[in-house]
Amino acid sequence: MESLSRVLINYGYQKLGEARPPRERHWPSDAGRCIRALVYQWRGEKVKAPDGRMFFIFRDGELHHQAIVKQLEEAGIEIIMKEAPLRDKERNISGKLDALIKINSKYYVLEIKTINRYGFDEICREGPREEHVLQLQLYLHYVQNIFKIDAHQGIILYKNKDTSRFIDFPIDYDESYAQNFFNQMKVIEKHIADNTLPERPYERTDWHCQYCDYELVCWQGISEKRIPEITDDDLKRLVGELIFVKEQRKDFEDKEGKLSELIKQVFKDRDLSEGRIDSYLIKLEETIQRRLNQKRLAEVLGDKINEFYEEKSFPKLTIKELE
Q1: Which of 76, 79, 161, 246 has the fewest beta carbons closer than 10 A?
Q2: pLDDT tens digits, one per residue of 201-233
Q3: Is residue 36 part of a domain?
Q4: Residue 19: is its pLDDT beyond 50?
Q5: What one-character-per-residue DSSP string does 166-214 give?
Q6: Does 125 share its domain with 245?
Q7: Torsion angle of the four alpha carbons 205, 210, 321, 9, in this order, in degrees rounded to the nearest 10
Q8: Predicted confidence band at 4 (pLDDT cuts at 50, 70, 90)?
């Protein structure tokens, strides 16, 4: 009997094959994508065999989005639109808005992203990903210009698929993001018309290339960089221990976050601000986090902002699992 896991992977492979119509228009999700891959897609270049798992990753994302919007609505958030289609005929751009919400008489564009715990931890440390900000800015542009709704701020809501933790970022509207995207679309169209290709923005070892449908055609005829095999047993043992420790740290960080949120909620429910357990003092208080607004500084200082940066070289160790 064929295993159920194999049945599902074959099903996913089949669905991905069915969902590959010729490219006819630009999408807001193109924001931040490799421009060379986009040109390949418009030209209809051959793609490498899809991984059946990707169908379920995409589908799970859709289900998470739908559930989150419904849960927000049940929690009292006013949902004005959900999964609303957008169409810019002049620029040949189509998209779909996750949701438009209303809070305290103000409109907000909501962009929902579901990611694994590693990506979630990175976002907690470094903030929202640039490509997600770009996408949200485009939706803000179109909500104002197509639907004529006064929405000047959006929210990117991230969900950790592994732990069900959430974090959100309010983003102010900036017209320059949309204009930069429109300019990039013109560059793509010119490459298509001239039958040319933009330069490769990544190395073949970058994850962008490893997960790209056009990796084979893009790097065809270029020898792949050979990575030496490590045979030293002591070094292999050290790396193995480091990988184990990193995995354990992630697990404990997730557990710490859950426990912390649970205790905060109990304190709020019981109207407590502090308490003592044996020799430990537990306090719940509001704190204010201040950080420099890099975007605002760049607007005020222009190129002079570079004078305030200093570069420092240091060794960076990266460990990632190869496909």
Answers
A1: 76
A2: 888 878 788 878 888 889 888 776 667 788 888
A3: yes
A4: no
A5: EEEEEEE--HHHHHHHHHHHHHHHHHHHHT--PPP-S-TTSHHHHT-TT
A6: no
A7: -170
A8: confident
